[in-house]
Amino acid sequence: MSVKNKGPQPGGGSDGRPPLSRQRGAVLQQLRGQAGSVTVTALSRLCGLHTNTVREHLDALVGAGLVVRERAPVVGRGRPAWQYRARPPQQSAVREYAGLATVLAGQIARSSADPRADALAAGEEWGRALLSGAEPARSPEDARGRVLNLLGEIGFAPEPDEDGHGARLPRCPFIEAVREHPGVICSVHAGLARGGMAALGGDADQVELLPFAEPDACRLRLGVPPAAAGGQAGPAGREGAAGPADGGGTR
Predict the structure, then answer these.
(1) Which SUPFAM superfamilies does the UniProt entry name for this protein (predicted)?
(2) DSSP string of 48-66?
């Protein structure tokens, strides 16, 4: 029995969001009142709630595109803590560009001899432009975290894997455009992550997007975990992995 793959949910906007509970809304309001990012522990103290309760609310708010989750700066050994900040309302305007993305994707699909390659190159340029002037990453882990932060800003609501080398992307701000031109738009998104990684001085060749890899999400690989590196030569061909063939796949 096959599972129908509907793909990620729309991201980056407030349309169709269910109303927040009183407690979840209070957590969001408290977060909006902070000058910068805060940890779960700090926010728990501010809200007077248990850390597990606050973490549950934050996970839901990240999934709804209302909150950004990012790693704290790397200091010393050990994995840095997660920090959270409210997404500024104007960032929800990303979805307004979906129509333009559809038009541009259609133009590439019709006029390019190699739509995937051209879309990948356009995405790489976009990623480099978004992080132009950024300080180089201090470590591969820092680079991976900052690429996920970038995708979170745009509206993909990434859910990082425990090993930090990949993430689920349960939301897509351009999902309607993807359904019209999947190979092109998905290649743009793959290029976006690659370009962002390159701009930070990371290894862009380790970046691979797996569209519709799960019934409700895409997957992004940002490198090979050390334990698996010995048995792998690297990610699969980028252009072939960047997106499903136009018109293919079940959604």
Answers:
(1) Winged helix' DNA-binding domain
(2) T--HHHHHHHHHHHHHTTS
Correct CATH for 14-87 of 3.30.360.10, 1.10.10.10, 3.40.50.11260, 1.20.1050.10: 1.10.10.10
Helix (H) or strand (E) holding 172: strand 171-172
Q: Which pair of structure tokens corresponds to residue 63?
A: 């999934």
Question: In this predicted model, what pLDDT tens digit does every residue of 194-214 receive, in sequence order?
Answer: 999 999 999 999 999 999 999
Q: Phi/psi at 84 (nearest 5 deg)? A: -135, 145
CA distance 31 to 46: 9
Q: Which residues, at least 6 apart from 2, have a Cβ–Cβ distance to it below 8 Å?
A: 250
In tens, the pLDDT along 103-133 reads: 888 889 899 999 999 999 999 998 999 888 8
**Facing residues of 69 across strands?**
84
Fold of 92-242: Muramoyl-pentapeptide Carboxypeptidase; domain 2 (3.30.1380)
Please give the model's pTM, rounded to 2 decimal places. 0.62
Which residues, 6+ apart, have CB-to-CB distance to 154 below 8 Å?
Answer: 11, 12, 94, 173, 192
